[in-house]
Write a structure and sequence with these properties.
Length: about 160
């Protein structure tokens, strides 16, 4: 069974990760990675952040000393935001696989099609060679028998 990968918005993944560590990864459906970032956040908080600084932050007294004490947790949260953003971009790139050979072939066929194209003498847009009128401006256009040029239509 083929599993399709939906395109996700990288900025939304980053925003959700900034709101709460791991939310961006939940949006991307990366469950284990989200739990890993959440666990890393709690682990860093428990090991490197002073509980008194957390209490001061919760009480609303924010100063430079409190912010410096909360720096390890802020770094982990920032790395989670960057990881969610980059992961969404990589996932989007995987959702639309193209090779350089395919892109080169498309460019060559587009260039060849442009050389063979016939333009409408009235509006200048490309004509469909099977039609006797321009589907853009709806004026009558006759293509000669060889199909390599235009004949001016007779006024009717």
């Amino acid at each position: 069974m083929v599993r399709s990968i939906s395109r996700k918005r990288p900025w939304l993944a980053a925003l959700l990760a900034a709101i709460l560590t791991g939310f961006g990864h939940l949006y991307l459906r990366r469950w284990r990675r989200a739990l890993g970032w959440l666990a890393a956040s709690f682990l860093v908080s428990a090991l490197f952040v002073d509980p008194a600084a957390v209490e001061k932050l919760m009480a609303g007294t924010v100063n430079a000393e409190t912010m410096l004490a909360m720096a390890p947790m802020t770094v982990v949260a920032g790395l989670s935001v960057v990881d969610a953003y980059l992961l969404a971009r990589v996932q989007n790139a995987a959702a639309r696989p193209t090779t350089t050979a395919d892109a080169d072939a498309d460019a060559v066929s587009a260039a060849t099609a442009d050389e063979d194209a016939i333009d409408c003498p009235h509006c200048g847009n490309e004509l469909d060679p099977e039609l006797e009128f321009c589907h853009w401006c709806t004026k009558a256009v006759d293509v000669d028998a060889e199909g390599d040029g235009l004949e001016e239509p007779d006024d009717r």
